[in-house]
Amino acid sequence: MEGRGRRLGEAERVSADEAALAATRRQFLKLGALAAGGLALGFRFPARAGTAGAQEAAGGAGAGFRPNAWVRVDPSGKVFLTVGKSEMGQGARTSLPVILAEELEVDPDSVELVQARPGPDFQDLGTFGSRSTRTMWVPLRTAGAAAREMLVAAAAARWSVDAASCRAEKGSVLHAASGRSASYGSLAAEAARVPVPAAPRLKSKSEFKLIGRDRRRVDGPRIVAGEAVFASDVRLPGMRVACIVRSPVHAGEPKSWNEAAAKAVPGFVALAKIQGGLAVVAESSWAALQAREALEPTVKWDEGADAAVDSAAMLARLRAAAATPGTSLKRGGAAEPALASAARRVEAEYFYPYQAHAPVEPMSAVADVRPGACEVWAGTQNPNGAQEAVAKALGIPAAAVTINVTLLGGGFGRRGRSDFVLDAVEASRATRAPVKVLWTRQDDMRVGDFHPVSFHRMAAGLDASGRPVAWRHVVASPLPRGGGSPPTEEQLRALLRGAYDLPYAVPALQADFGEAASPVRTSSWRGVNHNHNVFAAECFFDEVALAAGKDPLALRLALLKADAVVPGGREGKPVDRARLAAVLDLAGRKAGWGAALPAGRARGVACAAYDGQTSAAAVVEVTVGRDGTWRADRVVCAVDPGVAVNPLGIRAQVEGAAAWALSALSTEITLKAGRVEQATYRDFPILRFRDMPRVETAIVESDAAPTGMGEPPVPIIVAAAANALSAASGRRVRRLPVRPADVGADAGGKGA
Amino acid sequence: MAKIAFILNGKRRDVDAPAEMPLLWVLRDTLGMTGTKFGCGAGVCGSCTVHVDGEAAQACQVPVGMLGGRRVTTIEGLDNVALREAWLAEDVAQCGYCQPGQLMQAAALLAKTPKPEDDEVDEAMNDNLCRCGTYMRIRAAIRRASEREGKYY
Questions:
Q1: What are A277-290's pLDDT values in tens digits?
Q2: What is the third-level CATH fold of A15-211?
Q3: Distance CA A662, CA A487 (A)
Q4: Is B89 contained in some domain?
Q5: Which among B29, B45, B125 has the least Cβ separation from residue A360?
């Protein structure tokens, strides 16, 4: 959902964040009673605009807020942090304890992590939108600082000294004048009786000792030992394994099948009709896989009208939707008159395909359904959504559903949907036994929740000097899951993100959306709507620069010089042109923009402020052969994510984003007779080891509050690589994936 | 069903399983050793890489019936401490799911070629996929491990 949260009107600064901090400090600290005599502090999220909680907050009540996570100090001195984010490789479990430890004055390695389960105290555990660090920054610092002040107050009271003469350090309170010290553990019970400070003092950036230092992944030792537990590794006594035979057309249902085919497989236990398919339950994974294979050819499907749709028909739908877009967002003057009166007009069409998440761990979950209750183990990005969905499916209260969040073998948006969780629940209910559902690679590829396919009509008007005076970007795509038709203003902003908030100063800008129904499910895919919108906008920008006879990087910088910030972005955050220009300039300098390269080799550039937040710019260097084979040699990415909590993790996200983005130049999901044509990594060829380029990350020093890093580099690296391929080949890349025929001088084909 | 005896991580194991059952499922289901991961079941992703008689093999493609008397090493039995330490030092893992397979592939390479050239590393590792994109750090970790003296212990 869009439009959440406070509207600060300016980029958040640590120093300028005080008003918001003061408000949240008052509202979200709550003292928890702890049976064992320790100190527990809950902290709550800031209000969200438009929610009941926000309205209550505006009224000053604050009663509607829910604690989001808990920090606890045991009498033994152990510090526990309940992590309310799922770990899918983004490093939340590594960087979040640092934020707490910084203010609490403890060693982050000593903080024990407890994975949150959805429940009354934890109603917002969703992990998406590159929000883990950003949303936990203020709550964790405030909780740590409040706990520290309470521990110091307890020590001061015990020693009958002024609290100001005590300080906290490494899990103890020290009184230098008398040389006394007391461990947090010994103070926990007394600290729990100290009133919660209304406004604990937070450190200034210059006081940070932990934040900003490289920290290696906390789960690393277990991962390299083969001991890290993902959902597919969970084993319960008496557990069965289920494989699913699902309709090849997403909306289809099984009409008839021959159960005897599955029954003949040794180890077969049961067959159950579930939503959209059949669950084959067996004694082991191998038996379930074999029974699935035996059953599948016997199933007749009721496929519905979508069976008539293939990729060409989908493209026709998109073109039609782009020809008559229903809704638009405007900035400045009207775009069409400005286009009509411009000295020169540039137009182009762009295409971005469906994409699969294809995490290496296929969807998997374990469910144990008992009378009136259910326990689930799942690598889910959406524990609360899973709990609701399971409760609804079983007709039991949410409180009777326990969701244990395991590590995720890659998420990227796919594990926000609860379909695989429900598979396990339905199979467990049908067999009255704990069941692990095991999706095959083919299931995972075909029963996707894909990045939406899109088609873009671009138009720009230039004045006599070559300066853009008008810009129109028409986006046609399916609406995401849950999207109403027509989209609300909030949904429209999400759908047009990266289009309506184009950062460049253009006097008349318009972004339009046209809806095209999709026969396959679509949802969030690392980078979300920025992926296609930024691809089209940033590549078309290069076409405009070429038409104007200007260097694409220089023209970008020139159009970012305007001092006004761009309105919009997620949560109403404006694009800060100065920060974006700074990363763009830095990436250009690091990459040696403008320096000569051998024939067949070229650079491309792109930049964007993701959701109006993390500013990122990339320069990609590629080599294109005359036969159209190509490779990325080097990726330089400059980012401004605010305060860098864990620079090592930020660099990992940029490197991973580069691999993700370059994969997107080679992969696509296509449809034939309503069916997904791809089934394995052979026909969905994600980047391999040999093709990984050198990735160089530059992190801009910043005092601003941290923003996300998982997604922001993805869309710009896609666009920069496409621009590099266009520059190297002299053939404009306007569609993905990039085929040899699109960029090869001798390849014979013609470009999009 | 067949009775098969093989050496797993240095110890003799006797299993009762259909001869055509892939080693992957014998490890994960029959023996409860889940460090070896399922990724594709088709020998394409490398997540289930183990060693059979010292050679890297994809456990999803190895019928257990052909293992009689052979030596199998899984991530749980990998004794290349230097490689594990290099993996941690370079902070390779992101989600971590494919990493046991990556480690086993790299260990097989280093056992044969203690100081591999870059193209030898590329060649050896190219069949192990990582959707998080940790390849750059895997490369660095293999280099770090290969430069360490006395690395097998």
A1: 999 999 999 999 99
A2: Aldehyde Oxidoreductase; domain 4 (3.30.365)
A3: 31
A4: yes
A5: B45
